[in-house]
Amino acid sequence: MARLGEFEIIERFFRRPTDDSVIVGIGDDAAVVAATGPLAIAVDMLVAGTHFPPGLPGHAVGHRALAVNLSDLAAVGARPRWATMALSLPETDPAWLEDFASGFHRLAQRFDIALIGGDTTRGPMTVTVQLIGDAAAATPLRSGGRVGDTVFVSGTLGDSAAGLGRLVAGEGAASADQAALIERFAYPTPRVALGAALAGIAHAVIDISDGLLADLGHILEHSRCGATLELSALPLSQELLASHSIDEARALALNGGDDYELCFCVAAADRERVLAAAEAAETRVTAIGELTADGKLTGRLDGTTRTLEARGFRHF
Ligand code: ADP
Ligand code: MG
After folding, report:
1. How confident is the model at residue 171 (pLDDT cuts 50, 70, 90)?
2. Which label site among 48, 174, 208, 289 has the fewest CB atoms less than 10 Å from its CB?
């Protein structure tokens, strides 16, 4: 296997043409960009073996590394513009790098994002991407939820956790449905357009990375309220239901991580505006519950109510 040097890697796989907003890009000590106003900045680290199985194809690793940051900027309604990348690799395998870079650049192109710098070093496989974008005129915060708000989620929940389960068990896909679940883990769809549209409407928004209950729990904590969820309303995909019982599917939807969907709270009077925004963003949204004054997180199903416990991904 041919070994590549650091600068060859940067030139071959990471330097791409950029637009006029990039005054100094890859190749100097620091990048310089022309910002037009307040900036939103997020950084997320993907560690092989912690955040993704070590055997995940490079293309998917490149996609995910950017997608998880896009999801964070989506939650604050920002328009993503510039990225930096810190890459630690045990070896310089050109085929893997080619695959990784094409996964990253494909998604970057779709959202018009310029890669403007980074760092490349030898070490355990870790990909850290920082994303910078134009902040929304009004940034929805985790603390903005109000009692009586309707709680919505985008897309469907639980697919990614089911797909990851198969990958980790070394059980590949035995059907098209299972392949679709694995795809949801490997290639999450960040809800950038929806997030931008919600910025003027939603009181609070969070992206679901650690699981619905864990992430909604952050909104509840910061907004100092509780929530009641209609468990029969949780959006579940056909692909998930094809290989899981309804109870398993709901458990994955509540506590499985890696969905990268948005969970948001809006005044009940704004429900129509949300539906219009979702249609414009071509993204499915579902009302799943309401914020309450009692400080508890409860689920209702078939006329009974129970306390819901977050068992989301814990980093420590
Ligand atoms: P320095 O030693 O000044 O920190 P480096 O030698 O680490 O710079 O990197 C050279 C140039 O390549 C810099 O402009 C840096 O931002 C860029 N760069 C390094 N690694 C990456 C990467 N993985 N993706 C994008 N740009 C990178
Ligand atoms: Mg330097």
Report:
1. confident
2. 174
